[in-house]
From TrEMBL:
<dbReference type="Pfam" id="PF02992">
    <property type="entry name" value="Transposase_21"/>
</dbReference>
<protein>
    <submittedName>
        <fullName>Uncharacterized protein LOC120112507</fullName>
    </submittedName>
</protein>
<dbReference type="InterPro" id="IPR004242">
    <property type="entry name" value="Transposase_21"/>
</dbReference>
């Protein structure tokens, strides 16, 4: 955004945006931002053509962040650089002045103290407390003198929160993206699935909330999160959970580009937050409520007018374990499917001791389909006459979730199992997303990301077809269970000379066939 004013073509766009006789004057936040962009046109010194005042500060602050400079070291470098420049230079004198200049960008983040056990945030009404109200853990691990006669409190844990509202406003205040923020109105009319606006979930929401959809500049968002170890695999286990918010108004060519995927939360901790992630999502949910109910005054540089921008979170995107954490429905055990709910037909394998979803798919076929009546084609001796399980509406789900008891969050909280868990339901909590007023009206609330599905399905098929030892799903226990549930006499385990022998299956590649696959992969130009 800042570098938009750097270069002849971008400078022309900027000047035309600033000098044109607007139909409406920009609001105060937009005016502050445009004044900052004006500084980008000021050369670093008279006659300088390579750097402006703003570009120089941006690069110097970037170096400070990238190489972890101290403030005193940065101030020292600034003095040296200023002495090397001509007398007409306009470089700020120190770190404080540099930050003061960039403050109008609205890129601040908020540090919120967290209980060491993820029980609560020291936030809003609990901001001044010095210990957790749930587990009693102290808020600060050290209280020391900062050299000025004041005590500096160091908390055990902190949550970094980056508000998304200022960044959404910037998309409308930039001449590059303002027009594209309404692209979905025309792009969503396609009969082909070229954008999320072409999907039924998007159109369903527009029908339910016409007052929101009539303003094409209102923003649709998606949320995604996952945990990873930021250190090497040899280091001790550590869990870092970044929470990203994606803007879906933009065209598909730039919708998923890095500049338009906003980091909103950085959750640190030695362990995964688990179901206590709801505690840490509180600042984001509060901001999403405001963006839905009230909105924020935003200047649209393309239409040259101020408007009340609102936003909605359409769904989340994550892998299956994170689905558990965000939705409140456990994805383990026989009731793992969040759509079948208590109507699941899963069972536990007798030898493999794993939950199996085998032959749960026939109930979704048409009632007169031939596969429903195959006695020995799938599950041995069983035909399928049941209709598909009923799919609950958002209102019905909301009523169920509202009836769930409140639970105590935290890593050291006593284990509380909701009555009937694992038998009648798999609810472990009431998800914080149900606090959003529109959440029950969404057609899809949680999505599984394609990457994990494609990778896991591919590896399971690949290892099985290649008969990779220790990786294939076609092991001895699977063959023993196959004999119990399916009519596949050619695949049954055989005893040869007192040993168990697994007959070779038709789907397992021979050695020559495997080598041919390896040679094909080796010849692909896309693989380094």
């Amino acid at each position: 955004m800042v570098m938009e004013a750097m270069g002849p073509e971008e400078e022309l766009h900027l000047r035309s945006a600033l000098e044109v006789n607007h139909e409406e004057e920009p609001n105060k936040d937009a005016a502050d931002f445009y004044s900052l962009l004006k500084d980008a046109e000021v050369p670093l010194w008279e006659g300088c053509k390579k750097h402006s005042k703003l570009s120089a500060i941006s690069q110097l602050l970037n170096c400070k962040s990238e190489f972890n400079m101290s403030i005193s070291y940065y101030d020292r470098i600034m003095k040296i650089v200023k002495n090397m420049l001509p007398e007409s230079e306009k470089l700020p004198s120190d770190f404080y002045q540099s930050k003061k200049m960039l403050r109008k960008l609205g890129l601040e983040y908020t540090s919120i103290d967290v209980c060491e056990n993820n029980c609560m945030l020291f936030y809003k009404e609990t901001e001044n407390l010095i210990e957790c109200t749930i587990c009693g853990h102290p808020r600060y691990k050290l209280r020391r003198n900062d050299g000025g006669g004041r005590k500096k409190d160091i908390p055990y844990r902190r949550l970094r929160y980056l508000p998304i509202t200022p960044r959404l406003q910037r998309l409308f205040m930039s001449s590059r993206t303002a027009e594209n923020m309404s692209w979905h109105v025309k792009g969503g009319d396609s009969d082909e699935m070229v954008h999320l606006a072409c999907g039924e979930a998007w159109k369903h929401f527009d029908r339910i909330h016409p007052s929101f959809s009539t303003e094409p500049r209102n923003v649709r968002l998606g949320l995604c999160t996952d945990g990873f170890n930021p250190f090497s695999q040899s280091a001790r286990p550590y869990s870092c959970w970044p929470v990203f918010v994606t803007v879906y108004n933009l065209p598909p060519s730039i919708c998923m580009k890095r500049p338009y995927i906003f980091l909103s939360l950085v959750i640190f901790g030695p362990k995964s937050p688990g179901k206590s992630i709801d505690v840490l999502l509180r600042p984001l949910i509060d901001e999403l409520k405001i963006l839905w109910e009230v909105g924020v005054t935003t200047y649209d540089i393309f239409r040259k007018e101020n408007f009340q921008m609102k936003a909605v979170l359409l769904w989340t995107i994550n892998d299956f374990p994170a689905y558990d954490m965000l939705s409140g429905w456990s994805t383990h055990g026989k009731l793992a499917c969040p759509y079948c709910l208590e109507n699941s037909k899963t069972f536990t394998l007798q030898h493999g001791w794993k939950t199996s979803f085998f032959d749960c798919h026939r109930q979704f076929l048409p009632m007169d389909h031939a596969y429903r009546y195959q006695v020995d084609g799938l599950f041995n001796g069983r035909i399928e006459t049941d209709p598909p399980p009923p799919r609950l509406s958002g209102e019905e789900l909301k009523n169920r979730v509202s009836a769930l008891p409140n639970i105590t969050f935290g890593l050291r909280a006593p284990k509380h199992t909701i009555s009937g868990f694992g038998k009648d339901h798999n609810w472990v909590k009431r998800s914080i997303f149900w606090e959003l007023p529109y959440w029950h009206t969404l057609l899809i609330r949680h999505n599984l990301d394609v990457m994990h599905i494609v990778r896991n399905v591919f590896l399971n098929i690949f290892y099985t077809c290649m008969d990779v030892k220790g990786k294939t799903k076609d092991n001895v226990k699977a063959r023993q269970d196959l004999e119990l549930y399916c009519k596949r006499p050619k695949l049954r385990i055989q005893f040869v000379n007192g040993k168990l022998v697994k007959p070779r299956a038709s789907y397992v590649l021979s050695k020559d066939q495997a080598i041919e696959v390896y040679e094909w992969v080796k010849g692909l130009m896309l693989i380094p």
